[in-house]
Every structure is written in structure tokens, then in C-alpha cells.
Specification:
The strands form two sheets. Strands 1, 2, 3, 4, 5, 8, 9, 10 and 11 form a nine-stranded mixed β-sheet that branches. This protein has a two-stranded parallel ribbon with strand order 6-7. The protein is 29% helix and 23% strand. It starts with 22 loop residues before the first strand and ends in a 12-residue tail after the last strand. Helix 2 packs across helix 3. It is α+β, with helices and mostly antiparallel strands. It contains seven helices and eleven strands. The protein has one domain.
């Protein structure tokens, strides 16, 4: 059995909390950067709108019978067998409400930039932006009046079902391990079809530095500086270090 007790239905925290000095990155299009400055908020996507069908999943389809067995085992001390069967029948509704009420903000964990992330998380790599922060700054920037959980995603093979749906949003398939994801999870009132919510943050506490794409033209650097100042936000802006050229020797 895994050290995280994936299949036991535990309510214990399944994820690992990153150190406060863990460096985080968020890659985005220039337009999204401007939107963030304008709203002074981070977008938390609704988990039901994620493209990955395994987002919040309790297991692979072939494990349905095993999941039911684990579910019955989990609840046997607090419910009668008849009540458990009714819970299983109604679980799809509860599960849908949980997905519609879970919003997530995702970050890439790395000391340095990622060439792959520049390409994966922007629709126009030539005009892409990356903001750098760390876990401590991210936590400090979030409103203290709300409950947020910050943790490292667990990359999992789903070879065992997860009995407790409340912890499933910390798991992703191994095929996504390249994302090195740290996510912030927040619970809201379930809203069917809602794309997500904007959570106000203190950008001055959050953003350590802004980088422009290694493929960007020089004018974008000045534009990002000007736009940031327009919104009253003075921040260091630099071109991606990936754009640096190697030493060359004359032939």
C-alpha cells in the first residue's frame, strides 16, 4: 500500500507541502498578463472544465468494481449495507457537485525556466509572458479570509482506486509528470458550467520578476514594462534567459 493511502479513503492530507522558498512559474499570453494586472486577481479554473478527463478521477474505468468494494469497506463502520448502496447510487451527483465546486490555480515548480512550458502554455509563443514567484509569496498574496491549500501534485498510475473523492484533485497521471505542478485548491459553491473564478491577490507580494518569451521581439520588453507601470505595478522585466547566445569562436 502506498504511503499516501490512496485506496483507504483517508481524509489525511495526501499531498506534500512545498517549502516556502520553492520557486514557481506561471506561463501565459500577454493578453492574460494584462488581464491579471487589470483585475488584480488570479484565475482559478473550475476542475470540471479541465481537458484532462482524469481531473478529480477516483480511478480508471476498469477499477469500478474494486472502487465499490473499497467504498463499502470505508463506510462499513458508520453506515448500514443498505445505506452504503444508496450512497453509491447517489455518488455521481455528489461527485459532480464536488467537481463543480473545486477551483484550481496551477504553477510550474522549477528553479529555472522551461523551454517546453513556453510552448505548452501560450497560444502565441512570440508574445508569451512568464511570471516568477515562490510558495511563500504566493501564500502571502492570497486573501487571508479564504481557505486555500497549496501542495505538490502527486503523479499516479491509478493502479488502485481512490475511495475518498475529497483528495482526488491532488492526483494526475504519470504522463503529466513533466509539468512539475504545484497547485492551489479552493472550494466554492458549485456552479454548473462555470469556467472558474477570479480571486483577488496582492500582485506586489506575488510577482518577483517577469520574463518575456525567448522568441519575443525587443519591443515587447518595453511594452510589458510600460503596461505594468500603467497599472501602478513596478516590477523587473527581462527577456528569457533561454534567448542568450553561446560563446562563439572565429573560424
Amino acid at each position: 500500500m502506498s504511503k499516501y493511502k490512496y485506496g483507504t479513503g483517508t481524509t489525511d492530507q495526501p499531498y506534500e507541502k512545498p517549502d516556502t522558498d520553492t520557486v514557481l512559474w506561471r506561463y501565459m499570453d500577454f493578453v492574460k498578463y494584462v488581464s491579471m494586472l487589470s483585475s488584480e486577481a488570479l484565475f482559478f479554473a473550475n476542475s470540471s472544465q479541465f481537458q484532462d478527463p482524469f481531473e478529480g478521477a477516483v480511478g480508471a474505468e476498469v477499477l469500478m468494481d474494486e472502487w465499490k468494494r473499497r467504498f463499502r469497506e470505508w463506510y462499513k463502520d458508520v453506515h448500514t449495507p443498505e445505506e452504503i448502496e444508496l450512497l453509491i447510487q447517489g455518488f455521481h451527483m455528489t461527485y459532480s457537485m464536488l467537481k463543480d465546486g473545486t477551483v484550481i490555480n496551477c504553477w510550474y515548480k522549477s528553479k529555472g525556466e522551461s523551454e517546453a512550458m513556453w510552448r505548452l502554455y501560450s497560444t502565441d509563443t512570440n508574445n508569451a509572458i512568464a511570471i516568477r514567484t515562490n510558495v511563500g509569496k504566493l501564500k502571502a498574496s492570497l486573501p487571508g479570509t479564504k481557505q486555500f491549500e497549496i501542495g505538490k501534485v502527486i503523479y499516479y498510475d491509478y493502479d488502485e482506486p481512490i475511495s475518498n473523492p475529497n483528495i482526488t484533485f491532488w492526483f494526475k497521471r504519470q504522463s503529466f509528470a513533466h509539468e512539475k505542478e504545484v497547485r492551489v485548491i479552493h472550494r466554492v459553491a458549485p456552479q454548473v458550467g462555470c469556467n472558474g473564478v477570479l480571486i483577488p491577490v496582492d500582485l506586489r507580494l506575488l510577482i518577483d520578476k517577469v520574463y518575456i518569451s525567448p522568441l519575443a521581439s525587443s519591443w515587447l520588453l518595453d511594452l510589458v514594462k510600460d503596461v505594468s507601470l500603467k497599472y501602478g505595478f513596478e516590477v523587473e522585466v527581462d527577456k528569457s534567459e533561454i534567448a542568450q547566445l553561446p560563446i562563439k569562436f572565429d573560424k
